[in-house]
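Customer ticket, subject: "Can you confirm the structure for Aminopeptidase N?"

Message body: Hello, I'm evaluating your service for our small team and ran a test protein. I'd like someone to confirm that this is what the system normally returns, since I don't have a reference to compare against.
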Amino acid sequence: MSDTATPTVIRREEYAPPAFLIDTVDLEFDLVPERTIVKSTLRVRRNPDARPDAHLELMGEQLEFIGAQIDGQPYEHVRAHEHGLTVENVPDAFTLTLTGACNPEANTTLSGLYVSSGNFFTQCEAEGFRRITWFLDRPDVMSTYTVTLRADKAAYPVLLSNGNLVAEGDLPDGRHYAKWEDPFRKPSYLFALVAGKLVALEERIKSGSGKEKLLQVWVEPHDLDKTRHAMDSLIHSIRWDERRFGLELDLDRFMIVAVSDFNMGAMENKGLNIFNTKYVLANPETATDVDFANIEAVVGHEYFHNWTGNRVTCRDWFQLSLKEGLTVFRDQEFSAAMSGGDENEAARATKRIEDVRVLRQMQFAEDAGPMAHPVRPESYVEINNFYTMTVYEKGAEVVRMYQTLFGRDGFRKAMDLYFQRHDGQAVTCDDFRRAMADANGRDLAQYERWYSQAGTPRVTVTTQYDEAAKRYSVTLAQGYANGSPAARETQNGPLLIPFAIGLIGPDGADLPLTLEGEQRATGTTRVLELTETQQTFTFVDVAHKPLPSLLRNFSAPVIVEYDYSNDELAFLLAHDSDPFNRWEAGQRLATRELLALAARAGAGQPLVLNDALVKAFAHVLTDASLSPSFRELALMLPSETYLAEQMAESDPAAVHTARQFVRKGLAAALKAEWLAAYDANLTPGAYEPTPEAAGRRGLKNLALSYLSELDDPADAVRLATAQYDGANNMTDRAAALSALMNAAAATGSDYAKKALEDFYARFEKEPLVIDKWFSLQATQRGTAQRPVIETVRALMRHPAFNLKNPNRARSLIFSFCAANPAQFHAADGSGYAFWAEQVIALDAINPQVAARLARNLELWRRFTPALREAMRAALEQVAAQAKSRDVREIVEKALA
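Agent reply: Thanks for trying us out. I re-ran your input and got the following:
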């Protein structure tokens, strides 16, 4: 609900079962863009488990009421109001028929039923169904649906809804109809319809049990050549879920539909997944390696929801992580398997590193801000604001820890029990935890705190080695990082933290591990269960003083504090057998150096590059035993946003100066090595989006990016120009353009001007590629003479820019505000003034998108005083003018 009503706080503790249940829903749509008539026939009965209520209260927004019937007779005791419909004095069981109208053409919120590119689409999660018809629009009301769609056949030849097509035919006056039945009970948020001029790539497969399934990827006709990868990703997802969890596709058909106007990435509506085009359309000329990987992951995510979210859904929106955290974990495991199979730990680690980078940069920051909340929130004003990194990414880590504790077999056993108990039900996070506990014979009462406590836990590690007794003691102490008051209010006791550890000997080899009291060593990595505020674990038969490898594979979403020296970090980077911790050592080393340089830059002191960092990077860059994808990740410096958040007072300008100094220094010191890496990782021949080829392109293009930092970037310009002109794929073309823009910013030359013009001319008719064109310019470095905000404002006047399209708004406005910190946080406050203008403008069109942008300033108190004051002024401006409760909740919490 995005309205101007006084915000109402919804609290988990106040949950009550619905007073009525709706067993069946029969919907009829007469689809007309400016006035669609919707007739809903509901079989309603009182809920025996709820408090009796004389009146039926249905939710509804922006609907025109036409009429109501009970049991086939007109019913007058119906009162329409701003937030719904009150049906008075109803019997215990009855059939309610409601007729109403909505205006899809005018619906710019993209929630409910709307029109995009002349086609009809829906988005009902979380509360969009109430914009289509009046209903008990809550996830614990589950019904079976029959849907009849009627529309002009020439304008809307394709009519789709959930489930199975049971009838279709022509009607008078050039119209036609299609009737769909979904045999599975579902909540209203999983309803979907699509109508328009679309075409499909089709494939028929057999499920593991031998049943034939029809798979379809529906797109606009000119995009049909970009659907093969999405189809392959869907087939891979189906096969993986059968193998890993024994879960089969349960419908006769499964459909994916791509739409260019969409607030989210995709939506898992039962059997009819609606996707942002960004996560469906791909061919080598238009999509990068990252795009190909993201499509595979998102297709997997939405397909996996068919069981973890659809067959078993949430009782209420506080349980959102029950489906989202669990399904993110499943899509992460799927992507890791696609990267290198279940046995290739190095390949799987690359995916793990990528996921943790996102978690630490975005979710840890969320934990430190005014929107901090537990994985299972206790209250909200606008549920759309709680589709957060905490619910999704930290929620996935909470699920992953079950697997860490019980192993893959124990986790699978618990998943089987979960479905056995709850298939077809709306349940809670506690129900999932109980299945994990019961299947594995464990008391997990303490584990509940992972769901109810906000903030990022901190584990402080101290060690002691007794050379004479050959005993090595590790003491772990848990607490919380300095978070927000919102987080501290929820913290009430120690967590159960699975803490994976290894010990590395002086020769760089892992030591066999025997804990005190054990008879023999069991492996070289142990998962210690930290359950108290402080615990000591002692390893015996340790012949030499080891170096600890802590929190291997990032076994819990915590911050580890241990005072490694620079030499020890370099040693771990060179020798740790755990790929994640090898990467982590390099990141710690780089972060330490960058923060020291940022402090000097902020104080106006000269900067000197540490030789140890150069040597460590040279070792990784030239180590051919490491995969190119791992080397690419290890050689990426921590982001400016992450670094600024590690400072007592965030100083984006100083961080930018320090990071650019290090990039330039590494480019100059290792120029020959970068050039060699570029040449060694060329991928001639036809483009292949395989993990191996993508890894080589990634390392090659990272080398090009570093080379573009040189004072004399002639080599980079030569390589980038040739790469741009000869590219047979978007990965190489976009990377070459980015390098040319880097070189132009470093030298003040116009190396990139011609390529930018050519890029637009080549891809003018490809919206997703033009999004990249906008984003590249919004995130470019800029100079004092050419601040990027001037470019962004000019691009907003470009004919291709459309504020109403979320992808286009994200490509330009969000990219500048979120991914160009040095320019956004300009000392003159121009970035904040721009942010305020755009939040207010978007709020009038699409509050969900506006609220996402509003979160860019929620950590304003962490910055230097001058920036803080400018941010406060911008927040107050938005607070005074914002109309939606989506945006008001964000800015009011930020200012509180």
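A couple of notes from the result: The two ends are 23 Å apart (CA to CA). The longest strand covers residues 175-186. Feel free to reply with more questions.
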